[in-house]
Amino acid sequence: MKKKVLLVGGLHKAMSLADSLITKGYEVTAINMNYNDCLTLASIDDLEVIHGDGTKPFILEEADTKEKDIVIALTQRDDDNLVICELSKKKFGIQKTVALVRDPQKTSFFYQMGIDSVVCAINAITGIIEQQAFVDEMTKIMSMEDGRVSIIELKMKSDMPIVNKKLWELKIPSQAIVGYILRNDQGIVPRGDTRILKDDTLIVICDTSVQDQVTREMTGQ
User: Fold this and answer.
1) I need a labelling partner for 216 at 20 to 30 A (CA). Which of 24, 35, 67, 160 fits?
2) b/e per residue, 68-96, with b = 16+ CB within 10 A?
């Protein structure tokens, strides 16, 4: 059965997400209070579009929110995104909500209010820029025998062998470096005493020849 996703607000973000999710087999509905934006969204094949204010319960009812697996709030107002996610969880019983926030200082508050995932545009963009700059620099300075460099992204789960260990404790090949850690909505350039935590995403740069070994030793899989 297809997973069902509801996107609320955010024309360009909603278009990009809808196109990607539909391609991956999700069933996607979008709510937007701007009629012209709705017409633009309707150009995406297989996307159901509803014109209305996603902070209003009757609009969420029209979108059949109670049947959705995930609700993602993408409006330009942080308070609206909080209301959308709170209504989705408390009135419609949605298990997974995602909210976009513009003010980084509100991130902790959103989590305290029960929002499952909070994406701060400023922190996310900064992290991407820092990550790319770091990766670019590392690929320049790392000396590999045959010049083949792989970049691996590993999401840490509680049962993985390196979780709760410090970086210096890891036994990975010398041709591999943990270059960056994404933790919640922040990026960390790790040092030897940095501890790896559950739900961290590690960006590992390594020689292609040891990629499988690195993945196996870090994930246990």
Assistant:
1) 24
2) bebbbbbbeebebbbbbbbbbbeebebeb
